[in-house]
DNA sequence: TTGTATGCGTTATCAG
DNA sequence: CTGATAACGCATACAA
């Protein structure tokens, strides 16, 4: 790889001059500018961003820590995050924590060593104090860590309310909520809260099942739901905390010969692509994934530029009625 | 952020010594070693990987260019790629080309500027010569670029053969193949080849529809398949070149009130998670995604270490019979 | 308009 | 066993 020195030599000038034309700083005669351009061309010169980063103390890299990009929600989110990052001149270092504590901690350290300019946290297995001492622009998804770390979420309570009320309005008498592990202190737990509130409020029999700590490990879903149906054959409504869970619920329904939506109704959450792809198409609570990804990048960049940011960023949700409820 | 200088100062030694304990090089007395450790601890020192990269001329970063991580196949693949990269001490810079020529080119340049140690190419919109001149360890998925760039693929011809023969064996009389754009010079085109060969060989009426150039843009699938069904209502077998396409085919079948597998049979490709999640569960050709991701990393690393690598890396496929055929 | 010298944080070479 | 010092590739302050 050619360096700035090679270019300088070839163009018969010093590195300073080359640097100048590279960054359009200060005055340079058109003649030398052309010479430099020519030399750069001939050598296929690309400035070394590592060296630039070192000098500027800024890498233009943002770390993204999520449970796993293979989960459709995070896959779609990551796609948008990377898209907008790139538009703003930033790059994304991808980290799949697999919701493993040790791995998440190692990733954070690794990102700091690599001098990332900020971290987007979609994985939350650590305690609050491990995050607040990071001393780095951060934005989290779905978790409120402290009052000076901005977070992004959908209006979980409202989403839970819409979903639960829909089930009840449609005549369900015994409803279940399938959700991630409530010990994880996530804002998604508000969906659970809303579920309970509505069910109690409207005096409907209800039950909740949680995943284990590895919330996004989809391999556990089927058994979880299977057992739910086995223990409670009379359930006639399900509010699943993700579309993937809802899809598994549909699958298990077919094993139990339960007819959707006649025997049992299902509402999902997220509105990922497959929600409208599977048959029956999933009635769900839509999160604006693209907007959320875009804002994550904007919040990181604002912090990098020392601009003020809103700490609480809650996006409205919408009920998308399809076939399952 | 504390630097090695700060540590040196605090420990009352020079940076040389600190660097030594950091890298376990040369002799150092246990006393000073402890002093240095203590200072590092107190300052929460993390070595600056940017500076290290500059000196070593090695970033330990691998660039990953794919169409989009939101597509389940690439989402799952990326998860494994990142997983194994991390195990080997490498990090992944994520690039979603969206199958845009300009973007792909820009990403390649960007990755070179950032001094990545290698590039994994899952997106192929450019001409051969744009790839062969980049002078960097590369491995591609599903495309043979030149005889000194290793590529990874599944046994596409065998996959196409298995799928097509299954349809015919099960009694289909008029079969269709839905695939990506054949102008893209991908190895996946061998599935098409096998489809044609088998159909001709066994004298079965057949037809093919292709996506446009943006092969992984799933928004076009539904209309494509809808039109296929409209133009050819008598199709009774479909070989889709991905499980996602297969899922869309299922969806459209329900719109046409076609019964699966009685009226029409469908075979997908990939065996991503959702193939066994949707109802009816998709009969498909399985690619070993994890192994392929793992090998991609290993091939890159071997090249980085100047070891010999196999150029052609074709994984066997297996027919997974489920419900749709 | 261009060049010289210095520093970004680290590692390696060579003395001591 | 430890310390100066140069170098990695680039960008800036200051001179000329």
In total, how many domains does the architecture of chain A comprise? 3
Q: Please, what is the oligomeric state?
A: homodimer
Q: What are the low-pLDDT stretches of chain A, counting only 5+ consecutive residues below 50?
A: none
Largest sheet of chain A: 6 strands, parallel
For the record, what CATH class of the largest domain in chain A applies?
Alpha Beta
Q: How does the helix and strand content of chain A classify structurally?
A: alpha/beta
Helix share bin of chain A: 40-55%
CATH topology of the largest domain in chain A, anyone?
Answer: Rossmann fold
What is the percentage of strand-forming residues of chain A? 15-25%
Q: What spatial order of strands do you see in the largest sheet of chain A?
A: 2-1-3-4-5-11
Secondary-structure element series of chain A: HHHHEHEHEHEEHEHEHEHEEHEE
The gross shape of chain A turns out to be elongated
Question: In the CATH classification, which architecture of the largest domain in chain A applies?
Answer: 3-Layer(aba) Sandwich
Write the layout of secondary structure elements.
The structure is a homodimer of 325-residue chains.
Chain A: H1 4-11, H2 15-23, H3 30-43, H4 49-56, E1 61-66, H5 72-87, E2 91-96, H6 101-113, E3 118-121, H7 128-132, E4 138-141, E5 151-154, H8 156-169, E6 174-179, H9 189-201, E7 205-210, H10 221-231, E8 237-240, H11 243-255, E9 265-270, E10 283-286, H12 289-304, E11 312-315, E12 318-320
Parallel strand pairs in A: 1-2, 1-3, 3-4, 4-5, 5-11, 6-7, 6-8, 8-9, 9-10
Antiparallel strand pairs in A: 10-12
Helix pairs in contact in A: 1-2, 1-3, 5-12, 8-9, 10-11
The structure holds a DNA duplex (16 and 16 nucleotides).
């Amino acid at each position: 790889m050619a360096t700035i020195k090679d270019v300088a030599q070839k163009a018969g000038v010093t590195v300073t001059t080359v640097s100048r034309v590279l960054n359009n700083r200060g005055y340079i005669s058109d003649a030398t500018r052309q010479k430099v351009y020519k030399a750069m061309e001939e050598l296929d010169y690309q400035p070394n961003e590592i060296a630039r980063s070192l000098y500027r103390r800024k890498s233009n890299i943002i770390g993204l820590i999520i449970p796993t990009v293979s989960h459709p929600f995070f896959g779609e989110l990551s796609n948008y995050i990377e898209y907008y990052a790139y538009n703003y001149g930033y790059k994304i270092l991808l980290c799949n924590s697999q919701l493993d504590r040790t791995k998440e901690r190692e990733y954070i350290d690794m990102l700091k060593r690599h001098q990332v300019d900020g971290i987007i946290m979609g994985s939350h297995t650590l305690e609050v104090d491990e995050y607040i001492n990071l001393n780095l622009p951060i934005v989290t998804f779905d978790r409120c860590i402290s009052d000076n770390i901005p977070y992004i979420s959908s209006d979980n309570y409202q989403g839970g309310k819409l979903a639960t009320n829909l089930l009840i309005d449609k005549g369900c008498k015994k409803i279940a909520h399938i959700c991630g592990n409530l010990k994880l202190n996530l804002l998604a737990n508000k969906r659970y809260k809303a579920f309970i509130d509505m069910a109690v409020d409207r005096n409907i029999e209800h039950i909740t099942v949680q995943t284990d700590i590895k919330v996004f490990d989809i391999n556990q879903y089927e058994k979880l739901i299977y057992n739910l149906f086995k223990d409670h054959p009379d359930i006639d409504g399900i509010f699943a905390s993700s579309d993937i869970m809802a899809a598994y619920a549909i699958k298990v329904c077919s094993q139990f010969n339960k007819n959707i939506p006649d025997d049992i109704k299902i509402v999902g959450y997220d509105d990922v692509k497959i929600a409208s792809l599977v048959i029956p198409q999933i009635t769900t609570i839509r999160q604006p994934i693209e907007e959320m990804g875009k804002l994550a990048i904007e919040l990181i960049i604002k912090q990098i530029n020392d601009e003020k940011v809103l700490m609480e960023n809650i996006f409205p949700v919408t009920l998308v009625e399809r076939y399952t409820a």
